[in-house]
Amino acid sequence: AYIAKGNRKFESGFYQEAYIEFERAITLDPNFSNAYIGRGNAKSGLGDKTAAIADFDLAIKLNANNAAAYNNRGLAKSAIGQKPAALADYDLAIAINPNFVEAYNNRGIVKSDLGQKQAAIADYDRAISLNPNYVLAYNNRGKVKSDLGQKQAAIADYDRAISVNPNYALAYNNRGDVKSELGQKQAAIADYDRAISINLNYAEAYYNRGSVKSDLGQKQAAIADYDRAISINPNDARFYILRGALRYDLGNKQGALSDFSQAIKINSNLPVIYKVRGMAKVDLGDKQGAIDDYIRAAELYRRQGEMKDYQQMMADIAKLKGN
């Protein structure tokens, strides 16, 4: 009863309540493998991936043939960047249960992350052959096909995902990305519109729609989309960089400077942000501030092996100092 209740709480996103139910189940029977899986899932949902892995370890110790424990441990390992270890866990889950649809999908994601694109597609193919209505696998296969330049095949996968689930916002967003890359800007905007109508708090879709509007010269409309993306997720440097660039183009140098500074607070390792902030400072008459930013950009370019950009920044610094 506690397990069933915990699973319901977990599926509804109530991770703390789920955790309590699984704790009760473990107190009643400390040797029940699935109770540790449940508690591990709850810990993972609460963001403690390392503690979740410890619970999956316990579940496996109690039942070495529990495929779900390997799969879920793989998810937690992948989330903290342990990709090869996650891959090994998915292999074990599939060895125990060769029809484990989710494990094929999850293994495909890790293979794609590791650059094994064709092997990832093979895993998504297998997941789809086991469940022809598995929208996640269509979406993920579409992403890999797009990465490989197979744009029309990617669109076909997103179409299929949407035909199975017409309210699948992620597939509309991803299809919009591909259409945008193919130059179908209005069709891309229509897809982002649909994604946003399904999920009004979909920051990535606002960001992507803003980028397409910017490409079409609709700069104020693009800024409005970036505003919305930032209000939903204020911790993504990309949103500030592109809004800052548009503000700069429209003559709002102070607004651009503010956006670039905020982007640097979030991610201080992107040389391009220092470069563009330096440009804004030049326009605002802050020559020394611009030189400082250019020096920082040059150092980051050098450290990251971008020697052409490094040399350009050094030339810009010399020019500024000479004026």
UniProtKB/TrEMBL annotation:
<feature type="repeat" description="TPR">
    <location>
        <begin position="67"/>
        <end position="100"/>
    </location>
</feature>
<feature type="repeat" description="TPR">
    <location>
        <begin position="135"/>
        <end position="168"/>
    </location>
</feature>
<dbReference type="InterPro" id="IPR019734">
    <property type="entry name" value="TPR_rpt"/>
</dbReference>
<feature type="repeat" description="TPR">
    <location>
        <begin position="33"/>
        <end position="66"/>
    </location>
</feature>
<dbReference type="Pfam" id="PF00515">
    <property type="entry name" value="TPR_1"/>
</dbReference>
<keyword id="KW-0677">Repeat</keyword>
<protein>
    <submittedName>
        <fullName>Uncharacterized protein</fullName>
    </submittedName>
</protein>
<feature type="repeat" description="TPR">
    <location>
        <begin position="169"/>
        <end position="202"/>
    </location>
</feature>
<dbReference type="GO" id="GO:0009279">
    <property type="term" value="C:cell outer membrane"/>
</dbReference>
<feature type="repeat" description="TPR">
    <location>
        <begin position="203"/>
        <end position="236"/>
    </location>
</feature>
<feature type="repeat" description="TPR">
    <location>
        <begin position="237"/>
        <end position="270"/>
    </location>
</feature>
<feature type="repeat" description="TPR">
    <location>
        <begin position="101"/>
        <end position="134"/>
    </location>
</feature>
<dbReference type="Pfam" id="PF13181">
    <property type="entry name" value="TPR_8"/>
</dbReference>
<keyword id="KW-0802">TPR repeat</keyword>
<dbReference type="GO" id="GO:0046813">
    <property type="term" value="P:receptor-mediated virion attachment to host cell"/>
</dbReference>
<dbReference type="InterPro" id="IPR011990">
    <property type="entry name" value="TPR-like_helical_dom_sf"/>
</dbReference>
<dbReference type="InterPro" id="IPR050498">
    <property type="entry name" value="Ycf3"/>
</dbReference>
